[in-house]
Amino acid sequence: MHELSITQSIVDAVCERAAGRPVRTVSVRVGMLTAVVPDSMRFCFDLTTAGTVAEGAALEIEQPPGTARCRACSKDFTLADLVLLCPCGSADVEITSGQELQIISMRVG
Amino acid sequence: MCGTCGCSGGSEGGTGTRIAVPHTHPHDGDHVHDHTGPHQPVAIRGTADGGETVTLEQRVLAKNEDLAARNRSWLAEQGIVAVNMMSSPGAGKTTLLERTIRDFAGQRPVAVIEGDQETMLDADRIKRAGSTVVQVNTGAGCHLDAEMMRDALTTLAPVSGSLVLVENVGNLVCPALFDLGERSRVVIISVTEGTDKPLKYPYMFAAADLVIINKIDLLPYVDFDVTRCEEYARSVNPGLRSLTVSATTGEGMRDWYDWVAGQY
Ligand SMILES: Nc1nc2c(ncn2[C@@H]2O[C@H](COP(=O)(O)OP(=O)(O)OP(=O)(O)O)[C@@H](O)[C@H]2O)c(=O)[nH]1
Ligand SMILES: [Mg+2]
Ligand SMILES: [Zn+2]
Fold first, then answer.
1. Do B238 and A84 touch (CB under 8 A)?
2. How far apart are the C-alpha atoms of B177 and B64, rounded to whole Å?
3. pLDDT at site B140
4. For chain A, how many structural domains are there in total?
5. What are the residue boundaries of the CobW/HypB/UreG nucleotide-binding domain, all occurrences included (chain B) (predicted)?
6. Enclosing domain of residue A50
7. A17, A81, A101 ranked by CB distance to B202: nearest
8. Which of A51, A57, A73, B194 is at 20 to 30 A from B233, Cα to Cα?
9. Is the model's pLDDT at A6 over the cut of 90?
10. Please, what are the domains in chain B?
11. Is the ipTM of this complex over 0.85?
């Protein structure tokens, strides 16, 4: 369950920045092409925030969809999974979004 | 036993060096933080209810990635090649390592980092094969990370020019996300696991530099399709190289050794 260590990293970073102030909301960006399951992340968030300044905070998860650009036909298209195949048949594609794993912001005070 | 809380650090017994992974205690009121990394500028915005929005915009795994980068440059300075070996449980990682160690004896110094949730069993096998080894027990953790890698390298103290083989925890999901600072990543799949493994675990195959198909001595007895498996793997990672071996009979191992030589 890598969501546990990932969520722990988020909570550590957030608590450090909060510098003792209570954290109300944490916003993160988890792309659809990452191996991170949002529901597991929520579960781990409640677990890892317990006893910290972020206890009871809401977790907002933004999920950018997978997109790619084909180097053969230069079209942009949606990627439902990691299979790198353009509708034109070319496998020479570049992932342009969906792999984000970032902390966006938090609300404190 | 853990020095912080006195909890059991896992099963005892066995020989060799073991590192119990430092674990955090989320319910301790006072959090300890290290302040090694530079702090990024923080944008703060007031809101109507008296709260403030603090913009962070940082990578979640920034700390691990920074540590991995430090491991990577240390290894490069020493001329050491570290290879992160990943697979599902039982694909044959330890068997492949044992044979590699025996075949490299007298040619290239090999050191091994063994990641398992519990026990020293694999480390004992590696030691018997003739290599120095550090066992990292991750406990509930399902992967190695860059901090464990740094600690293991410190304990292992590999000589310059050596080959460091890292046996990650048997798992085809979690280890793909955590950079250790290795030179290259190898995913091992055995022919008893099914041809469609690369499609079921695409993240691991997308992150790999080489796929080793192991246990080919069993091909006559299973319906595994090597060519199709390689096609599936390349559908998520077009440049992925692959080779086929039997770690028990030794068939194909020459290709693996050539690949290792090519990493220097
Ligand atoms: N027939 C055959 N059996 C193999 C081969 N390689 C490994 N095995 C067997 O597969 C079983 C598991 O091998 P290990 O080397 O312990 O596998 P592992 O990936 O290290 O396992 P974990 O550390 O538990 O994840 C053992 O019984 C090995 O003897 C092979 O090439 N052919
Ligand atoms: Mg093993
Ligand atoms: Zn196209």
1. yes
2. 10
3. 78
4. 1
5. 84-240
6. 2-65+98-108
7. A81
8. A73
9. yes
10. 18-23+52-261 (3.40.50.300)
11. yes
